[in-house]
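Progress narrative, Year 2. Work on WSC domain containing 1 from Pan troglodytes advanced from sequence curation to structure prediction during this period.
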Amino acid sequence: MAKPFFRLQKFLRRTQFLLFFLTAAYLMTGSLLLLQRARVALPQGPRAPGPLQTLPVAAVALGVGLLDSRALHDPRVSPELLLGVDMLQSPLTRPQPGPRWLRSRSSELRQLRRRWFHHFMSDSQGPPALGPEAARPAIHSRGTYIGCFSDDGHERTLKGAVFYDLRKMTVSHCQDACAERSYVYAGLEAGAECYCGNRLPAMSVGLEECNHECKGEKGSVCGAVDRLSVYRVDELQPGSRKRRTATYRGCFRLPENITHAFPSSLIQANVTVETCSGFCSQKEFPLAILRGWECYCAYPTPQFNLRDAMDSSVCGQDPEAQRLAEHCEVYQTPVQDTRCTDRRFLPNKSKVFVALSSFPGAGNTWARHLIEHATGFYTGSYYFDGTLYNKGFKGEKDHWRSRRTICVKTHESGRREIEMFDSAILLIRNPYRSLVAEFNRKCAGHLGYAADRNWKSKEWPDFVNSYASWWSSHVLDWLKYGKRLLVVHYEELRRSLVPTLREMVAFLNVSVSEERLLCVENNKEGSFRRRGRRSHDPEPFTPEMKDLINGYIQTVDQALRDHNWTGLPREYVPR
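Result:
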């Protein structure tokens, strides 16, 4: 009896060991598969800190629009070319649009979350920094390499235009962007950031301190953490977009104290608009003022706010007569108003979690642009959009629950998603305009227009039937579950920008000066305004679609009044 029992005990011990071995092998195999799917690479040795690890710390100037370019991949660089002048021949190209089929809103939101996680995992390890012997400018540059400059002060070294490109940043890409906007200097930082400006500090730092490789140009140096590789830009590259020129703002009455209102001036015979604009651009003034043979440079101020334009014929006199009159012609220069371009993350985590909520296509990105430049703090996003990040919205890369941003963009609705926030700015836009804007974005990106085939296909009516109800439920849910709300109508923000923006900033508990609000008004368009003529009939809605949408408009209008808010503007319903 003891012998069979011993054999059974031995068999069970072997089986136990076998099961343990199989379980361990199964777990190891599953872990390897997960690592492979998440694209996590194990480091082979010590790495220098990548530039992306430091991105949330840097303060950033105003983002402006620029299309991506195809990078030049020429790693051969010569140390003798540190201060040389060379030619670049990389034309700008337009990015290819993404998929163009209609998705449901729930699957689209899930896809955005997955895309954010994918980008976070794939970019978590930056490229190794270049050694001191590799710190040299690209050989394909049109302009003089000035040197390496510190950029770790309270204000940026180059305060003009800024954009990022986490994958394709090159020296030529940055130079073309700055040259197009009439800036003299182009600076590259942390391998993926481009800054422009017309002024540099007197002292530079050692060349070896700029040792990060450009994201899209191996062997080329693109600054480092808080360090700028600066080039003097001479001219645009072949195939690039033309330089921007001065834009006529109107005829205005001169302020009482010209010397105080206009800090810089140029007086010479036969002065032209181009001469005056170039002079003011060099000094980084956004306004060029002509009065006869006199050229003045200025910022918009409470004394000269450009709101009371006069008939242009008043300024259409000969230069001598205009000089004696009390009127002047005002032009917008290609450079930006730099008084509101410095932005940063909140120094301490916010105690109040604020949402910037809207239906897609209601102007949320534009509202973020205004809020960032009015408050000086970045806005966050519930989603990750690499296109917006590259345009200067640095909060896109920050986790939406970090509380380091002044507010968080969201299109979500539903009780659980709404009650996560302590308060919210609810941005509402005419559903007819919102639906058209969102359909354009889904089919052709942030700045494009849907093609005629999209409007004539079954895609458009399916889109209206699905999204019109979402426009209504989005507002109703936020009115019902929102803890503390500020309702803002997009049309009112366009029509009366400074008063409405002042109310939004006060809701965010931030104090701003009148000069900063005027700066925002002067830079109000940002990078995401669709330009040009629409490629479709401006009235794509059928009578059945109008009946459906008008019913939702009446429902939302009544709900706003029931919650003691002003109802929807009458212009929402087509007459």
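The longest strand covers residues 143-150. The CA atoms of residues 48 and 128 lie 6 Å apart.
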